């Protein structure tokens, strides 16, 4: 019941996760990222610790595939899970359990992976991948919103979308972007509106916040 993208910007080395779903408040439970090392998404039957543990592994330079494989090793509910990761080299990996609601699957490309369950069909993932790849020079936040918007337009979650999120880290352990739509009839329109508000009212302050180096 969720469509998502996990991605790395090769130009800025930012990492992010964006998603939309029929359930409320998709934001913090699904999205996980560690600056300079990678990002991780956990969905379907969500276990937030898979994302937390996955990012710990990525921060130790474990590959995306290695992180995905490792977090699932002792998970007796793995067939209800869907997880995905991108590592510091731009390698991507995803896992879709056999018991995830159809249509369920993933598509990988250079520095990104898109995945979803209870989707209208594979065309949702293909639309997301195409939109993300369309303008590689655009800001990561815009590319990720474009991907989610394209997925929703292609049919998205078969039960519709009620919440959405974009979570991006740059060089610090706190997010550069953390936009959340928790309960709305037009999640894409609201996501785009909040990006404008965030950029105008909060983004300049985030750029001036303390860093590990100063």
How would you portray this structure in words?
It is globular, with a radius of gyration of 16 Å. A hairpin with a 4-residue loop joins strand 5 (81-87) and strand 6. It has helices at residues 27-30, 48-59, 64-72, 122-134, 140-153, 187-201, 203-207, and strands spanning 2-8, 15-21, 31-34, 38-44, 81-87, 92-96, 105-109, 112-117, 163-169, 177-181. The model has no long low-confidence stretch (mean pLDDT 97). It has a six-stranded antiparallel beta sheet with strand order 7-8-1-2-9-10. The termini are far apart. The chain has one domain: Aminohydrolase, N-terminal nucleophile (Ntn) domain (Glutamine Phosphoribosylpyrophosphate, subunit 1, domain 1). It is an alpha+beta fold. 34% of the residues lie in helices and 28% in strands. The chain has seven helices and ten strands. The longest helix is centred in the C-terminal third of the chain and has 15 residues, at 187-201.
